[in-house]
Amino acid sequence: QVKLVESGGGLVQPGDSLRLSCEVSGFTADFYALGWFRQVPGKEREGVSCISRDDEYTYYSDSVRGRFTISRDNAKNTVYLQMNNLEPDDTAVYYCAGSTDRLPIIKYYCTTKRGMNYWGEGTLVTVSS
Questions:
Q1: Which of 5, 55, 56, 86 makes the best surface tag, with the fewest CB within 10 Å?
Q2: CA–CA separation, 85 vs 109, rounded Å?
């Protein structure tokens, strides 16, 4: 059974950094891509960043490009999201997700509703002074 477990969320001040981790267990070799999404109550879920299985391709939303970095350690079956220069608008529940579907470009995993088919439970990030 595939399982994704996020960790690393918390309360930070504007300008601070935080690193989220997502440990993947189960049939990890079948994931074509992994990614991070976030959601604020009352708003649509946003695809923040996605990474291909071989690390060759990454995608970032416009709102985080230049501040966030996605990476993965296949030996540890873990995907990370390094978040720098955090802003209050980054406050959200962050979800890790994976896809066993083969899509033509990395962006589709983050921007289409059916891009990912496995999800974690989420971790809360709050940016506030």
A1: 56
A2: 25
